[in-house]
Design a protein that fits this description.
Helix content is 34%, strand content 26%. The protein is an alpha/beta fold. Helix 4 packs across helix 5 and helix 14 crosses helix 15.
Length: 500
Amino acid sequence: MHRVTVSPTPLLEMRGIVKSFPGVRALRGVDLTLQPGEVLALLGENGAGKSTLMKVLGGAHRADSGSIAIAGQETYFHSPHDSRRAGIAVIYQEFNLVPGLTACENIFLGQERTRAGFIDRKQERQRGAELFRRLGVQMDLDAPCRRLTTAQQQLVEIAKALAFEARIIVMDEPSAALTSHEVERLFDIIRDLRRHGIGIIYISHRLDEIFSIADRVTVLRDGANVGERPIGQLTRQQMIELMVGRELKDEFPKRAVAIGTPRLKVSGLQRGRAVRNVSFDVRGGEILALTGLIGAGRTEVVRLIFGADQRDAGDIQLDGRTLAVRTPRDAITAGIGLLTEDRKLQGLILGHSVRENFGLPNLDWLAADGFVKLRREREEFGRFVDKLRIKVPHQEQHARNLSGGNQQKVVLAKWLARDCEVLIFDEPTRGIDVGAKYEIYLLMNELAAQGKAIVMISSEMPEVLGMADRILVMHDGRITGEITDVAHATQEQMMQLAVA
């Protein structure tokens, strides 16, 4: 394990940080320290204050009170530019890149190298190539960022941080859309940055990663610091209990449910090379997991079932009846609901209220004569706010202002209101905290107990093993294996099938 030399003067010291918004006290006197060459994991449930604290550090928010010291020197940030000049780089989950600019142009945007009043492209290219060599990767410096993979865009963000010699780098959910191989490469880069004395603040809901990369853990809950320990002094269970403030007896509360006859049946699904002759069924009361590496074709399969993409061939049946699913409307009418992988782009209209988002797929029974029955809509949504414990100050709150976990609950609410017979959960717990995950698992159990057919796509192998009754593994658009004895299955077994 990496040993951090504790300096008498921390690289970063935040003391008594308080920040309030109208009606909400987001930070309640938070303390945080970071040593040179340390990876500090910042943990907490959605809404605990992690993002607000990092926005204060990044200069996007001004604290109401409290102090920030960099290498012992107290400083004040009035803007992100001030934070950046102090040597702080924040790599947000949604990257801050200009899609139409090249990788090289993005790296030096705002800090262009000039000669005689003109941008020195040659010097920038040399410096850009040098930065990527330091990161141990090859990169097409002339490629527009819109054409780069998520992992490549992340490398551009890290290169940006190194270009202005950042001493502190914040990484917010950096592995959310990476493959396991890309995550390992990211960890290698973090370890190299650590050796050069750079302090890293690492935010993630994937606890396995925390044990792999972090030196120390700071946990926030309800805007306050509730724990700070070296990673070696925490078990996974202790970490979870610090985050949620209560004991969770079982991280994956799977319960035995009587599994019935096949309800959803797909046969010979085909779409180019993305989905190749895929056939399976899902029984009532069953949670069927579709897993595999990113790009294996899992999401493409469920998009065909939901009518979001057109299939070249194949049949879809529900309760023995062949469905003519050509559009999502057809699927919804037939009783199929899809919680999309990207809730922000595909599951919600972020600029609309949570009430309006809830009502959108339910207008056939929430509207009459072309007008929405607002009172009924509010009453119905209110029921689900209570049932799912959605933390929202009022129903007119814009969806973009909710935490990830609460956004996911709003998406869940609109499908539960339709009483769908088949529910497809595509990465249902990505980017949400362990407490919200637990509540979603309980809900999946409840739906299974009602006889619903559930398809769950997940890249997190512990989640698949913890919640599925049966597992289908995909690779290159095909189903490469089926695991029926989930209780005795292993991650290694799934991985062998995933790379077959």
